[in-house]
Amino acid sequence: MSVMVTVEFPLQPGKRDEFIGLLREALKDTRAYDGNESVDTLVEHGDTSVLLIEKWQTAEHHKAYHQWRIDTGLGELIGPFVSGAPIVRYFDSNIA
């Protein structure tokens, strides 16, 4: 059963467009990562956050991917654009 993952990035004022540019490049690797099935990007009205809605084969696939992102320094790259830590949530996708 697939797992849905949401990742919300709270943004610094005025940093939305730069963050989206960085994200656009980073998501190429996300989509190619083992276990990723899809990624959609939503931008909140008012430019205060960006939400990723990701579908993964398993939560373990996403956790391995997340660790890879930490190990390769993406957190340091996004630091100047965000106002806090990303909020990650896991959801089962086929309950009903």
Word description of this protein:
- This protein is α+β, with helices and mostly antiparallel strands and 96 residues long.
- The chain has a single domain (3-91), classed as Alpha-Beta Plaits, CATH 3.30.70.
- It is 36% helix and 31% strand.
- It has three helices and four strands.
- The protein has helices at 16-32, 59-71, 74-78; strands at 3-10, 36-43, 49-56, 87-92.
- The chain has a four-stranded antiparallel sheet with strand order 2-3-1-4.
- The longest helix has 17 residues, at 16-32.
- The radius of gyration is 13 Å and the shape is globular.
- It starts with a strand and ends with a strand.
- The mean pLDDT is 94.
Counted by DSSP, the helix tally is: 3
Low-confidence stretches: none
Helix-strand sequence: EHEEHHE
CATH topology value:
Alpha-Beta Plaits
Count of discrete domains: 1
| Estimated radius of gyration | 13 Å
Main sheet: strand order = 2-3-1-4
Largest sheet: 4 strands, antiparallel
Inertia-based shape: globular
Protein name: ABM domain-containing protein
Pfam families: ABM
